[in-house]
C-alpha cells in the first residue's frame, strides 16, 4: 500500500511511504523532484471520485482537473484515474508540494482548457462529450509542443504518478506479491501474468 490510511500506525505508515518512494522511482526510472517525494511521503489515501472534495483547487478547477485526468487515464477493463482518486492526489500535490511557478502553470492550464472548450463548443469542459474533450486537449497539446515545461507535461506527470501510486492500481493492474519469495532476475513475463511488478 502506498498511501496509508489514518488508522495505520505511524511506524507502518512510515514504512509504506518509503515503499512509495521506491515504487515511484523504479516505475519512472528517474529521480523525482524533492517536492513530489515529499508529497508521496506525506500523502494519505486519496478518497474516491464520489467523495473527494477540493482543498486547494477551486471547485471548478477540481472538476476540470478530474475530467482531464479521466481523458488521460479513462476506465477500461481496469480502474481509471477517477476510480483511484487521482483528482484528490492532484489537489494535494498542487496545494502542498508544487512550487509557486508550477502552481501557476497548472492553474493557467486548467483555465486555458475551459476557455478552449467554451470557444469551440460553447460549453465548459465537463459538459463536453469524450470525443469533444479529446479534441480540445489534442489541440492545446499540439500548440504547446515546442515549449519545454507546459501544463500538459506537468498534468500528465501528476496524473500518472497519482494513478500508479494508488493501492488499487498496485494490486489490480500491476503484479502484487505482499510476501515475495526468492529473487529471480530474469523470468518470462508470462510467469507473472504478463504484468509489471509492484515494488
Mean pLDDT: 79
Please describe the biggest sheet, giving its number of strands, its sense, and whether it closes into a barrel: none
Q: What would you call the structural class? A: mainly alpha
Helix amount, in percent? 40-55%
What's the helix-strand series?
Answer: HHHHHHHH
Task: Specify the number of helices.
Answer: 8
Rg from Cα: 18 Å
What's a quick, concise take on this entry?
This protein has 199 residues and is mostly helical.
What does this structure look like?
The chain is mainly α and 199 residues long. The chain has one domain (10-192). The protein is built from eight helices and no strands. It has helices at residues 10-28, 34-42, 59-72, 86-96, 100-121, 130-143, 151-164, 167-172.
Task: Please specify the SSE layout and strand pairing.
Layout: H1 10-28, H2 34-42, H3 59-72, H4 86-96, H5 100-121, H6 130-143, H7 151-164, H8 167-172
Observed structural traits:
mainly alpha, 0% strand, 199 residues, single chain, 8 helices
Amino acid at each position: 500500500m502506498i498511501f496509508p490510511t489514518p488508522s495505520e500506525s505511524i511506524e507502518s505508515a512510515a514504512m509504506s511511504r518509503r515503499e512509495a518512494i521506491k515504487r515511484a522511482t523504479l516505475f519512472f526510472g528517474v529521480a523525482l523532484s524533492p517536492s513530489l517525494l515529499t508529497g508521496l511521503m506525506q500523502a494519505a489515501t486519496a478518497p474516491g471520485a464520489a467523495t473527494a472534495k477540493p482543498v486547494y483547487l477551486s471547485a471548478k478547477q477540481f472538476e476540470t482537473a478530474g475530467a482531464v485526468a479521466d481523458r488521460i487515464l479513462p476506465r477500461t477493463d481496469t480502474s481509471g484515474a477517477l476510480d483511484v482518486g487521482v483528482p484528490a492526489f492532484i489537489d494535494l500535490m498542487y496545494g502542498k508540494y508544487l512550487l509557486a511557478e508550477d502552481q501557476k502553470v497548472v492553474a493557467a492550464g486548467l483555465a486555458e482548457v475551459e476557455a478552449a472548450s467554451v470557444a469551440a463548443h460553447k460549453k465548459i469542459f465537463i459538459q463536453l462529450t469524450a470525443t469533444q474533450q479529446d479534441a480540445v486537449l489534442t489541440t492545446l497539446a499540439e500548440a504547446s509542443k515546442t515549449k519545454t515545461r507546459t501544463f500538459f507535461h506537468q498534468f500528465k506527470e501528476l496524473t500518472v504518478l497519482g494513478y500508479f501510486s494508488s493501492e488499487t492500481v498496485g494490486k489490480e493492474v500491476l503484479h502484487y506479491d505482499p510476501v515475495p519469495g526468492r529473487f529471480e532476475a530474469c523470468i518470462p513475463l508470462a510467469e507473472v501474468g504478463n504484468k509489471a511488478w509492484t515494488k
